[in-house]
Amino acid sequence: MPDKKHDGSKEAKLADYPKGFDMLQNPLLNKGTAFTQKERDLLCLQGLLPPRVLTMEDQIARILESIRRKPTNLGKYITLNALHDRNRALFYRVLRDHLEEMMPIVYTPTVGQACQEFSHIFRKARGVYIGPEHKGRMAEVLRNWPHKDIRVIVVTDGERILGLGDLGVDGMGIPIGKLSLYIACAGIHPSQCLPVTIDAGTNNEKLLEDPMYLGTKAHRIRDERYDEIIEEFVAAVGEVFDHTLIQFEDFGNRNAFRLLEKYRNRVCCFNDDIQGTAAVAVAGLLSSLRMTGAKLKDQKVLFLGAGEAGTGIGDLIVSAMVSEGMDEKEAREHCWFVDSRGLVVKSRTDLACHKTPYAQECQYVEDFASAVELFKPTAIIGVSGQARTFTRPILEAMAAYNERPVVFALSNPTAKAECTAEEAYAWTGGRAIFASGSPFAPVTFEGKTFVPGQGNNVYIFPGIGLGVVACEARHVTDEMFLASAKMLAQMASDGDYAVGRLYPPLTEILKISTAIAVEVAEICYRRGLAQKSRPGDLRGHIESLVYKPEYLDFESVE
Ligand code: NAD
Question: For the chain, which residues score pLDDT lower than 70?
């Protein structure tokens, strides 16, 4: 905000604000057609805008019309991005107030397509790109960012974007999209969010050959230089900004687990693919138990895919079972995994270390259908990135073993889902308790309409971020994710269950994020992890931090 001394006149009070065309180019201040006539006089805008003054509501109606008129989701994405670049308040208002409609555009599934096309649809740079060429001066690079009070960074190296693989710097769409959701769903202030992409090369040959590709045309750095880049980046964040949460996002699993282990007790960070996914999936599982009255201790969960999402979910299920009194070893026997080479069993010699705690003492089978037959799970969770792998015989078997089989097809984007909502309901005689990673439209089966729940990480990470920001947490712990999962599960209502939905509707996201933030901050205070002293009214304090996408009234600027 301007702090220049002034003589008390309105003009002097506005002295530090940009004027005329510069004001219209400043997305943090621009109100476009909503500038009043008086503001147009004060800010030298007369003649630079069409004559009619619109309200924000009029503007929202107009932007919705232009988005809805676009025939493709990518077209809608580009229109929304253009709005972001010219009018931040309006963008977040549209996103916040029309979240269910806009979420599939700013995030999965459209963001996947936007990343695949990133270098081709690129219009305006957003966020920070860091590569080996910045060695020794990463702090200087971060200082180039115009905002200084950064509280949340989402960083990717683009190696495993959604279920789409290595997209190199084209993965920047993901940190951008995730931060939009931090802002719209938890009210973190836009100027406190920074998207970062580490350009460590790409092994995607198509990109390396693409003349439009905007990243460095080199294969991925696989030696110690990679760790040096990350190390310097993490240190530079600590040097340049205070109290910043780093969310690691869409790293390949050769790095994701390692980096999380290396930094989780050093700085304030988490990995959303591992821990955020785990919380939303465990919330779904706990919610399914509330729906049916079944017990957690009786659940047998079979995963297709033993990567970041799968073993992250497994670990949190184990924590949940242990928190209910089960021994850890026994809890791990309730979680079986099938990866690309078959059932994860003790006799295998090819297991990466994140899988070994789940290697079962049992016969090896090669495929998922055989594992279903052997284990007779109560729940199957698809996190393999392999489309249509929950086949009809598998779903029929689940329906034969269980009154209410739990089926989570979490792979993203929609085209990668292990089964569709329709298949899940149809092949289990309408008895499946289904959730997906990307949204599916409601399904009517034998006269009953089901509204499939989306196990979207957005239910969790914005609330975690808000809680961390509110108390300036030193670290993010697994306890916070389990508490978030329990809180989210509790917030689903009988009305949600009546239509088969495990999660509350996204329209309640701000309430959910606030409730999770309170849980997170309470844990921080209990565990001595908060750097800020506890306010008397914690919930009130958290609510007061929430950014409201509203226009500044320049007529009453003091
Ligand atoms: P990852 O690369 O870490 O793991 C993928 C796993 O799938 C690996 O264990 C691999 O061995 C296994 N796999 C590959 N092909 C297989 C096959 N044919 N049969 C059996 N297993 C196979 O990836 P990840 O981070 O775990 O993500 C996996 C998927 O989950 C992605 O599609 C991602 O979009 C999705 N995901 C969804 C959510 C969500 O819905 N909330 C969150 C995170 C990830």
Answer: 1-7
